[in-house]
Design a protein that fits this description.
CATH class of the largest domain: Alpha Beta
Helix content: 10-25%
Order of helices and strands: EEHEEEEEEHEEEEHEHHEEHEEHEEEHE
Bound molecules: uridine-diphosphate-2(N-acetylglucosaminyl) butyric acid
Number of strands: 21
Number of domains: 3
Mean pLDDT: 97
Strand content: 25-35%
Number of helices: 8
Low-confidence stretches: none
CATH topology of the largest domain: Uridine Diphospho-n-acetylenolpyruvylglucosamine Reductase, domain 3
CATH architecture of the largest domain: 2-Layer Sandwich
Radius of gyration: 20 Å
């Protein structure tokens, strides 16, 4: 194989939670051809595979057996498409850097998704979303490599079956494909999305994609911890969606509870608010804590491990369940 497989590779710096982890083998193929070669080699050896992107939505165990593959496909380019452009971004491109570059080009569509950590290849898996916009709204297609036979296919956005923090990649295609490239469709026509919080005030005057992206960065920096200084994986739980009668009952007791009716009749609740109401904001236990400015984010204070984090998260979820009867589901994926 022409790519270098590193034995006993330390991944502590490769996950934003900063959890200690050693990969039995690690490889970062720099082209689709090299990636295909690596996958064929792993199949031939019977090595279990773990795919790694930016490690920002992942809980790593102390040891990962088999082969950890982090695609180092880092090219992106623009293609004219009607009044807008098509953006091709390979899986290893840093999402936030891409967003800022596109905003700098005056292109509308991804600016509300600024400062989301991670690589492009992971973005469709959980259909990243923030400040009123989800990836699925600007995504045109996803290029894939199939793990079983190395064939390449392209899925349209419709076939990705996007929903809130969900896609076909978490379900039917889970563990069966590697995402190699995203194709986004952006616009040159102004279409600011400023409904969330005080975004509109922050970009008062003449909004540009760059002004919106910078305002989003400012909001995020106020609430969310920087993984470079405090380990975290963003929101640790999904916002729960409950039946309308459950929401009604909760609203009767808590009239100020944030709630968002969904097209399917269910009602989305704010997990951060539920955790906050349990008095857990800023709570620390052992090596983990609930962030003191956004209760939906769990932070690693250093020295902890995955099992401890899961136990800590379980205690948070239990408190919410006991007080509100609402079950919280974890957002970051468990590797290995
Ligand atoms: N809230 C509290 N206390 C808290 C946190 C939130 O009362 O400690 C309340 C807020 O006041 C607000 C509501 O809960 O009324 C919602 O909070 P916020 O607007 O901060 O958003 P969120 O629902 O907690 C979601 C995403 C974030 C995304 C923001 C902004 C999920 C799981 N999380 O958080 O995504 O940045 O909306 O759009 O959907 C991520 O996925 O990692 C992430 C950060």
């Amino acid at each position: 194989m022409s790519v270098v497989i590193r034995p006993e590779h330390d991944l502590s710096g490769a996950n934003t939670l900063g959890l200690p982890c050693v990969a039995e083998r690690f490889v970062a193929p720099g082209s689709v051809a090299a990636l295909r070669e690596v996958l064929a080699g792993a199949r031939a050896h019977g090595w279990p595979l773990t795919l790694l992107g930016g490690g920002s939505n992942l809980i790593l165990p102390a040891r990962l057996s088999g082969l950890v593959v982090q695609p180092a496909l880092t090219r992106w380019w623009l293609e004219p498409a009607g009044e807008g452009v098509r953006v091709h971004a390979e899986a290893g491109v840093d999402w936030h850097r891409l967003v800022m570059a596109l905003a700098g080009h005056g292109l509308w569509g991804t600016e509300n998704l600024a400062l989301i950590p991670g690589h492009c290849g992971a973005a469709p898996i959980q259909n990243i979303g923030a400040y009123g916009v989800e990836l699925g709204e600007v995504l045109e297609a996803v290029h894939l490599l199939h793990l079983d036979d190395g064939r390449e296919t392209v899925l349209s956005a419709g076939e990705c079956d996007f929903a809130y923090r969900d896609s076909v990649f978490k379900r039917e295609l889970n563990g069966r494909v590697v995402i190699t490239r995203l194709v986004l469709r952006l616009s040159r026509t102004p279409r600011p999305r400023l409904d969330y919080g005080d975004l509109a005030r922050r970009v008062a005057g003449c909004p540009t994609p760059l002004a919106v992206a910078e305002a989003v960065c400012a909001v995020r920096r106020e609430k969310l911890p920087d993984p470079a200084t405090l380990g975290n994986a963003g929101s640790f739980f999904q916002n729960p969606r409950v039946a309308a009668d459950v929401a009604e009952r909760l609203l009767h007791d808590h009239p100020r509870m944030p709630h968002f009716p969904q097209p399917d009749g269910r009602v989305k609740l704010a997990a951060g608010w539920l955790i906050d109401q349990c008095g857990l904001k800023g709570w620390r236990d052992g090596h983990f804590g609930v962030h003191d400015r956004q209760a939906l984010v769990l932070v690693h204070l250093g020295g902890g491990c995955a099992a401890e984090l899961l136990a800590f998260a379980g205690r948070v979820a239990e408190r919410v369940e006991a007080r509100f009867g609402v079950t919280l589901e974890r957002e970051p994926r468990l590797a290995g």
